[in-house]
Amino acid sequence: MSERSKSIAVIIVAAGKGERVGVDGNEVPKQYRLVAGTPVLSRSIKAFLDHPQVTHVLPVINEQHRERFDNLGLGDPRLLPAIGGGANRQASVLAGLMALGPLRPDLVLIHDAARPMVSLEVIGDVIALLQNLDGALPALPLTDTIKRSIDGRQVAATEDRRQLSAAQTPQGFRFGQILSAHMRAVNVRREFTDDAEIAEWAGLRVGMVMGDVENFKLTYPEDFVRAEHILTGAKQMETRIGTGYDVHSFEPGDAVWLCGVRIPYKAKLNGHSDADVSLHALTDAILGAIGEGDIGVHFPPSDMQWKGAASTIFLRHASELVARLGGRIVNCDVTIVAEAPKIGPHASAMRAVIAETLGISASRVAVKATTNEKLGFIGREEGIVAMASASVEVPRID
Questions:
Q1: Cα four-point dihedral sign 107, 111, 116, 117
Q2: Which positions does UniProt annotate for a divalent metal cation binding (predicted)?
């Protein structure tokens, strides 16, 4: 049977919490963060769907991220329904292998979702090597001198780097063999670092193909910066600043919406949408930074489809316009001016909503509140004012 006629399934391992990349508890998991306007997981999946020899792609996700995955809107007849992963990577891969059992693919490739820039060439090389071996993985020779240390402070030995390589994914195997090896490994009192190690432990013949320096794993914040530069063609970026201002009066009601959070109150804000004065100001700030007018241009109040609409829709749209330019939102700052209701108890939730909507860390979002010292219409509790600023990075065009 020729290699092209073999059925080849791919497991995309995306079940981790993805917390290491950020410093804030509200950090978007790294597999769902945007890189050059596209979620990391979407890029990883598409890389394999673009390869003509791949017959099935199975995402293994964290069940707590199910809604995030569904919101990716991925669609392809070769893309299988995502399944939930296990407590660690090894358990997640086994769950994926078990789920592929009824399909009985000839070969399986196992790939980390956090490597979104894997090339078609690397994928093809791994598949080709499986014609003669039980397993294959891409790897890069080490260029730095490697020191061994027992305590992390004193050098105990210098390794021969000529015998060492840095492993990447996808790692490919004959399906039946790696499934059997993983099932046996469950009973071993140790956690294997990757699937190739399990294959080696099981006595399978594993070979290496040349890896790719751009097939690196997104782990730390600087990795995302590097990936952004690569995917945008290393264009020179420039920072732009936008500001926004909005005001809404009170009318009879029982709650107000501020920064996407519903706050019970003796009145509500008057407006065509949900009247979230703070998100309106922030949306205008982002639109202003990229020269795209104001919120009324994109969502006219005369259009009845926006009556009562959640203002997070407007904010997300502004974020998407930045992404289409190949840019990113660096940070945003919202100031709410009101005598009441009290904002402080809700500030953390507000930052979380904004961060979620924009796809950025909550550490890049500030929400502040002040009163008007009982002066003017704000002091008379007739309405609320919000001011916002946003900084974005976009490719320089002049």
A1: negative
A2: 246, 248, 280
SS3 40: helix
Which tokens is 156 given? 């105990």
**Per-residue pLDDT reduced to its tens digit, 158-201:** 888 888 899 999 999 999 999 999 999 998 878 899 999 999 99
Q: Is the distance from CB of 102 to CB of 83 less than 8 angstroms?
A: no
Q: Hey, what domains does the chain have and what are their CATH numbers?
A: 3-231 (3.90.550.10), 237-395 (3.30.1330.50)
Q: What is the pLDDT of residue 276?
A: 96
Which among 356, 95, 21 is positioned nearest to 31, based on CA atoms?
21
Q: What angle do CA 354, 358, 360 make, to 5 degrees?
A: 90
Binding residues: 246-248, 272-273, 280, 294-296, 370-373, 377, 380
What ranges in 346-391 are assigned the alpha helix state H?
A: 347-358, 376-379
Which H or E run contains 179?
Answer: helix 175-185
Residue numbers belonging to the annotated binding site for a divalent metal cation? 246, 248, 280
State the DSSP string of 263-325. EE-SEEE--SSS--HHHHHHHHHHHHHTT---HHHHS-TT-GGGTT--THHHHHHHHHHHHHT
pTM above 0.70, yes or no: no
If we measure between CA atoms, which residue out of 141, 110, 140, 144 comes closest to residue 127?
110
